Amino acid sequence: MFFGTLVLLAMLWVLMKNTETVVIDLIFRKFEDVPVAIILIVTIGFGVLIGYIMALSVVLTNKAESRALRMHNRKLADEINSLRNITVNEGIIEANEEEE
């Protein structure tokens, strides 16, 4: 919380120091007399948005992988339980029949 407040104060200080206006000439549109502070806020906002989208894709990929591993683990646990439930006598009888 304290670190976030410091970052916010630092951003406000930088924005207050950049009060001049600039001309933005994009390919499809031209903006005149735009304050540098607005440009900084918009670009930081787009950067945060792109970062969240990229992080969301990583989180969704990890969740899908986790779900697949849980299903695989459940199948292996069921297989182990079925092997535990085999009666001991079946194994002994089969071993004796093979020896004779």
Describe the 3D structure.
The chain has helices at residues 2-17, 36-84, 88-99; strands at residues 21-25, 30-35. By secondary structure, it is mostly helical. The chain has a domain at 17-85. Strands 1-2 form a two-stranded antiparallel ribbon.
Entry summary:
It contains three helices and two strands. With 100 residues, the protein is mainly α. The longest helix is centred in the middle third of the chain and has 49 residues.
List the helices and strands and how they pair.
Layout: H1 2-17, E1 21-25, E2 30-35, H2 36-84, H3 88-99
Antiparallel strand pairs: 1-2
What are the key terms here?
100 residues, mainly alpha, two-stranded antiparallel ribbon, 77% helix, rod-shaped
